[in-house]
């Protein structure tokens, strides 16, 4: 009887509300992503999340929760986890549009001044090679070139977390050369000598991969 | 998914609940075909609003949440009194606007404030009316159904 009546304009009870079948899952995934990512600015991040979702782009979501959340006030806001999210969103293209990148940066609640500072290290127009931006980001995370390379390996590797964090030596040397060239303190001869010594280790292994233990422990001994 | 240990690190971001609630409400109200696109537009709109008016629903939600944890927030009686006086003010301002020729002394900014306050008051009052109505209907519903069943 009730169903035969035209739907009244006023809502009287919960049963009158039609819940789209896909809504619960969307909300659930959205919530899980928010808890995992812990965005500093929830509103900004939410806008980015749904804009990516509606376009079918990779989502601005961390794979897992990152611990050093408490120190966020003291550092630049950029973390390895956030850089990894950016990598997930951008790495499918060799070059990324700067405006697009800036929006993604903003949606991760990172201060835009830091984005500009980062680009000042290697000024470019309109677009940047993703690998270069990632390299610059890594150098922002860690003090020394070596820590930056460690971050890079951990982001790029397909090894499980806590594993050897191997990356192709070709990529490694490309980024290493790029970063050391930006740092005028490092003579080119030193860079090349260092890379050659690493090349020998890699060659003996035949798969062309370099892992954390190949270069990170090495410098600690020195 | 099970959470193996304590949930100390799994915190729902501040104010997230409020955003989620607002989004859900709007989706249910509008019944959009494409929910992700609708949600993207919804948040984009809120962001724009925040840039203009500095009102962040997440921040506001976080503050509301905070009240439950920090009881001393309740000690401020000011807000209540402010509400009252604003109600009066908005009442007069509405009248003023209806008579177009008189010189208005309140500045643009104040007007906007009053406008917002009036909107809020009206919204709350309408909500109150609606809730009352629902209460009545809920109380009346069983009898009504019986009556219909008899017909």
Tell me the structural class of chain A.
Answer: mainly alpha
Given the structure, what is the number of helices of chain A? Answer: 10
Strand order of the largest sheet of chain A: 1-2
Give the CA-based shape of chain B. Answer: globular
- SSE order of chain B, one letter for each helix or strand: HHHHH
Q: Care to count the β-strands of chain A? A: 4
> How do the helices and strands follow one another from N- to C-terminus of chain A?
HHHEHHEHHEHHEH
Which oligomeric state applies? heterodimer
Q: What percentage of residues of chain B falls in helices of 4 or more residues?
A: over 70%
Report the β-strand fraction of chain B as a percent range: under 5%
Ends apart, CA distance between termini of chain A: 86 Å
Largest sheet of chain A: 2 strands, antiparallel
Largest interface: A-B, 31 and 37 residues
Mean pLDDT of chain A: 84
Structural description of this entry:
The complex is a heterodimer of chains A (about 220) and B (about 150). Chain A is mainly alpha-helical and about 220 residues long. Chain A folds into two domains: about 30-60 and about 75-130, no CATH class; about 140-220, no CATH class. In chain A, about 55% of the residues lie in helices and about 5% in strands. A two-stranded antiparallel ribbon of chain A has the order 1-2. In chain A, strands 3-4 form a two-stranded antiparallel sheet. In chain A, α2 (about 40-55) crosses α4 (about 100-105) and α8 runs antiparallel to α9. The longest helix of chain A has 16 residues, at about 190-205. Chain A is elongated. Chain B is globular. Chain B has a domain at about 15-70. The interface of A and B includes residues 12, 20 and 42 of A. Chain A: It comes from Suricata suricatta (Meerkat). Chain A: One of its GO terms (cellular component) is motile cilium. Chain A: Its main location: other.
């Amino acid at each position: 009887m009730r169903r035969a009546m035209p739907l009244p304009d006023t809502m009287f009870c919960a049963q009158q509300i039609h819940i789209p079948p896909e809504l619960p899952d969307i909300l659930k995934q959205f919530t899980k992503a928010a808890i995992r990512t812990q965005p500093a600015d929830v509103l900004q991040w939410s806008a980015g999340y749904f804009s990516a979702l509606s376009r079918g782009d990779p989502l601005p979501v961390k794979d897992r929760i990152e611990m050093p959340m408490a120190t966020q006030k003291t550092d630049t806001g950029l973390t390895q986890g956030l850089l990894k999210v950016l990598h997930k969103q951008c790495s499918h293209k060799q070059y990324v549009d700067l405006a697009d990148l800036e929006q993604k940066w903003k949606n991760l609640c990172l201060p835009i001044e830091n984005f500009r500072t980062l680009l000042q290290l290697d000024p470019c127009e309109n677009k940047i090679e993703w690998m270069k931006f990632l390299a610059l980001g890594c150098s922002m995370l860690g003090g020394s070139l070596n820590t930056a390379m460690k971050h890079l390996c951990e982001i790029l590797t397909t090894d499980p977390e806590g594993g050897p964090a191997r990356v192709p030596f070709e990529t490694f040397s490309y980024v290493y050369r790029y970063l050391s060239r930006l740092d005028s303190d490092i003579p080119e001869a030193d860079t090349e000598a260092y890379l050659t010594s690493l090349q020998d280790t890699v060659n003996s292994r035949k798969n062309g991969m370099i892992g954390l233990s190949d270069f990170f422990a090495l410098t600690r001994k020195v | 998914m099970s959470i193996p240990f304590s949930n100390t690190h799994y915190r729902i971001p501040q104010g997230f609940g409020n955003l989620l609630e607002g989004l859900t409400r709007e989706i249910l109200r509008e019944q959009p075909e494409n929910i992700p696109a609708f949600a993207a537009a919804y948040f984009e709109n809120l962001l724009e609003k925040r840039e203009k008016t500095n009102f962040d629903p997440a921040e506001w939600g976080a503050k509301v949440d905070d009240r439950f944890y920090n009881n001393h927030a309740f000690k401020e009686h000011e807000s209540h009194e402010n509400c009252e006086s604003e109600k009066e003010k908005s009442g007069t301002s509405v009248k003023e606007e209806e008579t177009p020729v008189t010189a208005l002394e309140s500045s643009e900014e104040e007007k906007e404030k009053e406008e917002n306050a009036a909107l809020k008051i009206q919204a709350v009052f309408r909500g109150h009316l609606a809730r009352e109505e629902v209460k009545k209907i809920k109380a009346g519903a069983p009898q009504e159904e019986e009556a219909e069943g008899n017909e």
